Amino acid sequence: MGMRQSTYDAIVVGSGISGGWAAKELTEAGLNTLVLEAGRSIDPAADYAEHEPAWSFRYRGLGDRRSLEQRQPVQRTCYACDEAAAKFFVDDVENPYSTADGKPFLWIRGRQVGGKSIMWARQSYRWSDPDFGANLRDGHGVDWPIRYRDLAPWYDHVERFAGISGEALGLDQLPDSQFLPPMAVNCAEQFVKDGVERRYGRERVITIGRTAILTVNHSGRAACHYCGPCHRGCITLSYFSSLNATLPAAAATGLMTLRPNSVVAEVVYDPETDRARGVRVIDAVTMEEMEFEGRVVFLCASALESTRILLNSKSTRFPDGLGNSSGELGHNLMDHTMQSGATGLVPGLDDRNAYGNRPNGLYVPRFRNVWDEHPDFMRGYGFQGSASRAGWSRGTAMPAFGAEFKEALRQPGPWQMRLNGFGECLPRHSNYVEIDPDRKDRWGVPVLRIHCEWGENERSMLQDMPVTAAEMLEAAGCTNITPFSNDTPPGLTIHEMGTARMGRDPQTSVLNGYNQCHDVPNLFVTDGASMASSACQNPSLTYMALTARACAYVVEQLQRREL
Amino acid sequence: MHRRDAIRTVSAGLALPTLGALAPDHLWAAARSIHDRIRCTQQDQGFLILTEHQNAVVTTLAELIIPETDTPGATAAQVNRFVDVMLAEWFDDDERAEFSRGLVELDARSANTFGTPFLELEEAQQVGLLRRLDDEVTALRQAEQPTQDHFFSRMKWLTLYGYYTSEVGATEELQQAIIPFRYEPCAPVRRGGSGQWE
């Protein structure tokens, strides 16, 4: 064990969406904060690659297949792990995990300053009162200790800083954000939107995606210039990431110490004070061990990494993992289902096309179990989608070659509209992670074994999505309507959450209503691990709001000397 | 590890953009300078795997698939070099062997039909041979059989990908803008379609 470092007011583990917010809020409140990031530092000027054209890459953007197969067989299943952005995804050989037989789980991970906020899909939706009340209403999982009204001001707070573009709709099941102007709906999408509105009115609504991308200059960051590949970085800081927004704000306070290459092996529990004393860190480069002390510890390492750290933090008082007196730590793992929906061709508009690469699509807010009760499943799903015209790539599936073929490919293909469902996953004790007793990662830290599969409710919803998507396309007058339903394993939606859930009762949950560990009051978990249910909306905006709210609570408690 | 070492590590990790110091105009200047330093990897070097004969056949096939018209074709886009890199470093052993076998079979078919190797045929004869191969791919597709292992299907995929992602293909044929600056939701159809992404 290396020598102990000086004590910080706060230690934040992780520098992604949640960690960046914790760093900003805690330092701006005057706390001397250490941010520990397991991965390397990122220099936007050198590492961002969004404007590098295909021909500058050896494999023209197809990726180094052999390297991907050998070093990133899991990560490569994510669409964003391309030739330019593969460096933002972990090396699967250095970062192994196990899965139960017959239960594949694709764990997509980013270990660097900025975490997955560099490559995230940026879709940003508030959760609603029906979402926070769902567990109580139907008895699955435990009741959320908070309701929408508790989080609403914190959604306001994080949205004003992050910048969320979108359209206000006034829907109960999808509350509006503090919006920047919405991105435009293209003419084929407008055609479908109009047709769906004629048939379904307010029941099924199509709106432009709500996204953490600036449509106007905002807080020293430039409006989007529609280049397209956001997951490769953004030198104009136009989309929200911790690297683009919260970490610079935290750095500007002079109170943040950011330490990359710092693998947190465990949270150190002090039996004398019954508190977390700090964290034990392995330097990822030198392999040296050291300990940092903090008055409060925030775990923001991603849902499963934060859970893994807690499961690996064993003591006499907590033999099954820190803060696990309930036995629920690691359990109730959820993700969203995806890849079920329909495609159709939009008639007409042959002389029209969209110009520019809009890094955003359409959204259909949840409509199942909103207006009435569905006989086959609880809760619901939303659709994401878009309409576009294929370019040259369709030529690989067309007959012919030669000058006429080349000329034909100058014209775009037909307008195709796609709707893709994102379904809520119920919290179930039987979906869980544990420490694999036989495997360690490159830094000697025991790894997770994941047991996760979709349940009946999710499968039932997956059957409904192609039907309702096809109904909407039919209502709009689309042709060649093709329903699809692909059984993608959990994990791939990268909305994994729930393994250190919030709840009212310390007997059945790990965290209280302020993301504070029931058992260890100076320990907070504010990333996806804390979620008590999954709703069907993309969850990152809620992690931001929960983190900011927990930080304000910590600052208040410290001022009252109650922490 | 001593504290000052730890701090040194910390300082090395600080490469964050500084807000406030950068107005959006400055961000744009930074974006342009990065755009300007974009590297080009096409160099005149030897071939990794293609023999002289294979290279000549691949070059000819690619130009027949995407010929020079009012814009340059596959030869100008150096599709043959892309094929060389993909064969050597991207395809697996089976795929590479199948592709090589496809080149041999092309010459064999040519010899059987016309009595000479493929490269010595008149262009119309070459086109005729390719049309037959293309029809085989279409038949597979219509029978809902996999097409990717058919030699001509693979060659066509390599040609299209290599051409349209080349500098010539992207800038002269597609006239793509890497930074469109705006999103027009209902623009007249223009070459290059919706932009950079395919």
Structural class of chain A: alpha/beta
**Percent range for helical residues of chain B?**
55-70%
Share of β-strand residues of chain A: 15-25%
Succession of helices and strands of chain B = HHHHHHHHE
What's the number of helices of chain A?
12
Number of strands of chain A: 19
Class per helix and strand makeup of chain B: mainly alpha
> Any idea what the radius of gyration of chain A is?
23 Å
**CA(first)-CA(last) distance of chain A:** 28 Å
**Number of E strands of chain B:** 1
Q: State the end-to-end CA separation of chain B.
A: 49 Å
Q: How large, in whole angstroms, is the Cα Rg of chain B?
A: 24 Å
Alpha plus pi helix count of chain B: 8
Low-confidence stretches of chain B: 1-13, 37-42
Shape summary of chain A: globular
Q: Mean pLDDT of chain B, rounded to whole units?
A: 84
Helix content of chain A: 10-25%
Greatest interface (CB-CB under 8 A), with counts per chain: A-B, 96 and 82 residues
- Overall body shape of chain B: globular
Low-confidence stretches of chain A: none
Average pLDDT rating of chain A: 97
